[in-house]
Amino acid sequence: MPFDSHGADITIVPVRTRAELTRFIKLPIRLNAGDPNWITPLMMERAEALSPKTNPFFEHAEVQLWLAVRGGRDVGRISAQIDALAPQTPGLKTGNFGLIAAEDDAVIFSLLFRAAEDWLRARGCVRALGPFNLSVNEEVGLLVDGFDTPPMVMMGHDPAYTGGRVEEQGYAKAKDVYAYLCDPTADLPAVVVALGDRIRLNNWDEAAFIVLLPNVNEAIADLKGKLLPFGWAKLLWRLKVSGVKSARVPLMGVKRKFADTMRGQLLPFHLMNAGRNASLALGYTQFEFSWVLEENMPMRRISEAMGATIYKTYRIYEKTL
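The structure corresponding to this sequence follows.
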């Protein structure tokens, strides 16, 4: 699929070989080289995430990756995927795009999206939604606000121009998701303390969970994506000995049978407070609660009652094909 741009052909190349996959993975490193807030992911982890041999997502999804090449140099990339397990609206079959990264060039973005959209149409999709890298359980959305700080573990970071280039291809906002930042050392509002006391005084069995992950990105920031020869030792030392100073809460849930009860509605406050206390005990100076859908007002109110503030916004785009 050649296209002339600035005097040189752009070719969209389907990723087929291990060497092409390696180029696909490494491209964002060059594109973000001048960004002090970019953190190079571990190459080994990225290779496993994009391999059908090691990522179970491929067992129920069809995935295609492409590279944009100009003058022998990789200048862009994109994925398209259809997850057989994703809920579908009758008559509105939806496929996804993801892993979008390219030089700031409208032609490159146009050709990449043309390839992804043609692939989705050929499989009966009438709507494209993304970016998902690769699924809703991994990195979701494109960073559109909050470029001035590094991303936490399992969160994305994109050049500021990317959102505008995506919109030029006819994509519009489907919804935003937020990342909240919380200072665990800050005093809790009295109402939150009272709610936590109310749960304890009732002395009932808790039926909920929260997951607090150390921010591995903080530990790998200077490893340049490599664990060998000595990166693994630095990583282990930072995680086990010197420690990291930040964390992320990616998962929190209340058992369905309690969700609509008064106690169930109080539990998220208790869980967030548990995350706060764990952060203090582990020496974390901040933790991120993400991602939160913009329409999820109960969780937004809880986060803000805990003193957390939105510091990053990720956008999910859609387009009728």
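The chain has a mean pLDDT of 88.
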